[in-house]
Amino acid sequence: MQGIPGVTGAVMWDSGIVLGKFLEHAVESKTIMLQDKKVIELGSGCGFVGCIAALLGAQVVLTDLPDRLKLLKKNVETNLYGNVRGTAKVEELTWGDNLDTDFTHPCPDYVLGSDVIYSEEAVMHLMETLTELCGRQTTIILAGELRNDAILEYFLEAATKEFVFGRIDQEQWHPDYCSSRVVIYVLTKK
């Protein structure tokens, strides 16, 4: 799949901030445990969500397209230093391509993504990757801004074939980082 040219990997989108702060809040309230969990972030962009997961103790692999890795690596190196509870590494991952076994053995405990639902082609490739990447113990948490109802419906229809999904109520989000324009979904394999 070809990446969309432009700024997609160089902008902090609201859904990424909401997801990162949701993770922080969920760990603090003990509804999610990330310590020593294998986490893969899809379409990491600037790396905000993956860096937060590493700070919360996860063993994170931040992934993106080849042309986005330089900035991603720089952001990880700049923001994760000293006494970090988890680890973070950056890897290339193009959705729809066959996955390296490092991604799937063992399967991740969590797969994270923000603003990864943006076109029908991207959804198709994202679903291929999620299906190959995730085991029965994997929890997928995806956040996105509500922009295009048709694309979101296409994603939800595709997701129901392989996954059980639900929407996380805003009462469970970080109280200072909520947006009516953002939704957070949780998916697990059927």
Please tell me about this protein's structure.
By secondary structure, the chain is α/β, with parallel strands linked by helices. The chain has a single domain (15-189), classed as Rossmann fold. Helices cover 35% and strands 22% of the residues. It has a seven-stranded mixed β-sheet. Helix 3 (69-79) links the parallel strand 2 (59-64) and strand 3. Mean pLDDT is 90; it is low at 1-7.
What's the SSE blueprint?
Layout: H1 14-28, E1 38-42, H2 48-55, E2 59-64, H3 69-79, E3 87-92, H4 101-104, E4 110-114, H5 120-133, E5 139-145, H6 149-162, E6 163-167, E7 182-189
Parallel strand pairs: 1-2, 1-4, 2-3, 4-5
Antiparallel strand pairs: 5-7, 6-7
Helix pairs in contact: 1-2, 5-6
Share of helix among residues? 25-40%
Q: Which CATH-level-2 architecture? A: 3-Layer(aba) Sandwich
* Binned strand content: 15-25%
Strand order of the largest sheet: 3-2-1-4-5-7-6
- SSE ordering: HEHEHEHEHEHEE
Low-pLDDT parts are 1-7
The general outline is globular
The H-level CATH homologous superfamily, spelled out, is Vaccinia Virus protein VP39
List the domain count as a whole number: 1
* CATH class value: Alpha Beta
What is the helix tally? 6
- Structural class by SSE content: alpha/beta
Biggest sheet details = 7 strands, mixed
